[in-house]
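User: structure tokens for this one?
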Amino acid sequence: MARADLIVATGGQPMVRAAYSSGTPAYGVGAGNSTMIIDETANIEEAARNTRLSKTSDFGSGCSADGNLIIEASIFDKLLAQLQKEGGYLASPQEKEMLRKAMWDDERHRTVETVAIAPQQLAKIAGFEIPADRKFIIVHGDGIGKEHHFSGEKLTTLLAVYKYKGFDQALDMMRAVYEVGGKGHSCGIYSFDQDHIHRLAMAAPVSRIMVRPAAVEGQCRRVQQRDADDLEPRLRHVGRQHHLRERESQALHQHDVGGRCRSRRTSRPTRSSSARSTTRRWKRRWRSSRPKAEGANPTAERTRERAAPPPAQPFKIEGLPCRPRPPRKSSPTPSAWWDTSIIDIIRARSRSAGTRSRN
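Assistant:
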């Protein structure tokens, strides 16, 4: 982690802590338990298609993948049938119990071998088989709470569906789901009712709310949000990748392996290659436009211009010391010492000159 410029830690709590303590700028997230509310005004085909896209992306391993659908009772059967048309397999109560035993151990921990796998492989581990064309498994949610395993994060190609009557009950079920896990992460809604959208925004204990996109695709901004003009301003989606692009340039210049932050920017602005080529082109034009003497060699002139100047001659001080010595204690005054020193230097140079002339 210390070698990287930016860390995006999307694992569990130990991984996030390791990223934050590495000394590298890091974005960390907690466990997700994405829940989607689908009311009576939703487009059933669109909701089913987006759910399939989100649930099958990376075999449902994304923390933003749809894990729970809270569906209005009047459209529950129609949406369930549409989900099966999209490739869902509706598990029986016996198969659901077999899945629970395969996906969680006795201490309610997720088993590693059932994370992010194909639905056929998941069913095989549980002890039954499903058709090869099925893309995810659907189970009926029998309750919400710590004791109900399917109301938590699944991290695989399994989806839990719940039925509600009245939007107030939907909000209560949503809050109960996030008490199990995923609080502060993300949720969404399929609705064209502005009052329902606004109430979910005010009630959901999450940091991101999607309105009618596939949760995983929408949070990565790979699906363009349609009908954005009819959304509340506070509900306009700002995905994870968009947030990173805005702050990446700042974070990359604040990295230091030693746990400290320092700026990598230099005070001198850099020029692009096009700017440098433009400068060179104007220099060539300026040289070619200068008047030339007859018989002059332009190549020799350019070589002469580029030649290094002769080395500077050392500066000499005649008769004076380059650095005066500190005054001695026996010297009466600095001026007397200075005069004495000058006289000594002159006498020494006279004697040396006389010696050289005799030799």
